[in-house]
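We give this protein:

***
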Amino acid sequence: MTAKQLYDRTIDATDRRILAELQRNGRITNVELAGRCHLSPAACLVRVRALEQSGYIQGYRAILDPAKLGQAMVVFVEIRLDRTTSDAFKRFASAVAGIPEIVECHMVAGGFDYLIKVRVESMAVYRDVLTKVLVELPAVRETHTFAVIEEVKNDPTIHLPLARERGRR
């Protein structure tokens, strides 16, 4: 298969295996990856490049230890806006994008509008972020804070059933 054909089709079980292996170890060599996926190194590289170009693989990064870097405190915050207009959502999202302590922000359905994840050094630092940053964001009416006591599971990988192709049940 050419790179163009690989790019234009849905992913198959071999692609899923490649993605699963790369999620486990993004620094694996192409030769080792090819062996684990039962491909030649050349065929494996073509598939990896096609997965990158088609957006299935968005990048590679190191996984850091937040505690060793002084960022062990995690806080989830529910945020309710004072109005639910397109402009308010855009202004809020734009403002959140520039705040480094906010590591995730999700618009949600339910009793509030956004759920954000904040990572900081301590509760004192979070208090400053809350009082000087979060409540000053555009259209924020109300916040509810949930400090994490213990992280029970944090698995950023995407479950990839190898037995079925995307879109099939």
In short: The longest helix spans residues 41-53. The CA atoms of residues 80 and 112 lie 5 Å apart. The chain is about 35% helix and 20% strand.
